[in-house]
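Inverse folding, one chain.
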């Protein structure tokens, strides 16, 4: 049984490795966690994810930008690669599928990729449709996969108009799916009017929104 002091030391290393985008430190701490018999899910959720939460805060304050977030994500994935195979299936209470993509005519996908990463950390299975996705494809995939969440983004006013159409189609055919939308032209009022379950105006807020979700999911997972 790992001592509380050792556990805290390893969690701190994992967290700092993500914040400082130090992949070697993260790998070293992840391997150490396994060697001392630490719970892999504990290491992921209270080490790696806590680090990513801090990165989200730095991003929100304008101290980190997209390149730093992506480098932090690389460090997080370096740890996940080591720890994830050791997570006991019965420990993952968060499960489900997320269909994610950028709507037809739009090729801006940085925000989408960051949100996708956070969902992966939370234990969701991701169906990434990519960018410039035909509207029917979102509906088709949400039905084929019986997705729990459909996440749509648009960065242009012209492409944004596809979002309410997708929401309407999904509501008709897969009413239980949660719908998250985002992108610069998408307002909170529009999201409410269109009947979306969640909203983020840009990559910064999209990361923040995803991190908030992971925080609440983490509470469920860790009890």
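Residues assigned per position:
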């Amino acid at each position: 049984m790992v001592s509380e002091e050792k556990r805290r030391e390893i969690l701190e290393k994992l967290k700092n490795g993500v914040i400082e985008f130090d992949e070697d430190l993260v790998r070293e701490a992840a391997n150490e966690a396994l060697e001392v018999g630490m719970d892999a899910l504990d290491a992921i959720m209270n080490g790696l994810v806590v680090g990513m939460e801090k990165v989200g805060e730095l991003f929100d304050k304008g101290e980190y930008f997209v390149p730093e977030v992506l480098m932090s994500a690389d460090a997080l994935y370096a740890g996940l690669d080591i720890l994830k195979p050791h997570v006991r299936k019965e420990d993952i209470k968060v499960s489900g599928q997320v269909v994610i993509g950028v709507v037809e005519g739009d090729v801006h996908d940085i925000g989408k990729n960051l949100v996708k990463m956070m969902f992966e950390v939370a234990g969701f299975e991701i169906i990434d449709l990519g960018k410039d996705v035909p509207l029917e494809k979102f509906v088709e995939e949400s039905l084929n996969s019986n997705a729990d969440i459909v996440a749509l983004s648009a960065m242009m006013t012209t492409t944004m108009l596809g979002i309410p159409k997708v929401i309407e189609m999904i509501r008709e055919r897969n009413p239980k799916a949660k719908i998250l939308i985002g992108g610069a032209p998408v307002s909170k009022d529009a999201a409410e009017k269109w009947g979306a379950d969640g909203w983020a105006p840009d990559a910064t807020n999209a990361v923040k929104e995803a991190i908030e979700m992971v925080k609440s999911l983490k509470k469920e997972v860790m009890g």
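Residues 18 and 52 are 7 Å apart (CA to CA). The chain has two domains: 4-89, 97-210.
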